[in-house]
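Predict fold of RING-type domain-containing protein; 215 aa.
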Amino acid sequence: MAGYRADIVYTDEEGNRYVQNYRYGKILSTTPISAKVQQDHHRPSVKEFRQFIDRASDWCRSFEVMAQENDEAKRRMDELTRQAEEAVYERDREMKRHSRDHKEWQLVVQEKTREAEEVDKANQHLAKRVAELEARCRDMKRDNQTLLEGGREDLTLEELLSLEAALERRVCMEREKEMAFIPCGHRACCKLCSDKLDLCPLCRERITSKLHIFD
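Predicted 3D structure, encoded as tokens:
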């Protein structure tokens, strides 16, 4: 070993550093880095020298094993780091996909909810309209019944004759009375006869529109 001197007794720590420096080419010629010189000029025996050489060899082997273990640990750490990065990437991709699917699902739900609300609103409007028409039909039916039961007694004779003449001329009195006149609301004749009338045959009020009533 270059630089080793037999007249110097090295401690284990110093021998350790010496061997390390020797392995990495840091020993220059015959000059060691550090050593303790015993003042008694004791020269080591061959046995002591061999023991030191054996210890140095053991240190070298230990360092080589440690270096191999360190390299293996570094490779393992690199592999774990790569696996962790792949797992994070896959997780982020799945989260983005689920987020996109969730947003699309929310849009579909919102659209269907809006359509359902519009249909419900239309149904409510129709139900209200049907209720109004049913009430109006009941009123018309009641008015017609009143007229039939003697509501004409308030009319003058001339009006009654005129009404009867109109009925004879323009109302068949045979088919079912299915047409109501607006605005008076009287249900006075069938649909065929109503097409020929401009005035209500019961009250003589001008007809603005006609409503077909189904019993």
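The beta strands are 179-182, 187-189, 209-212.
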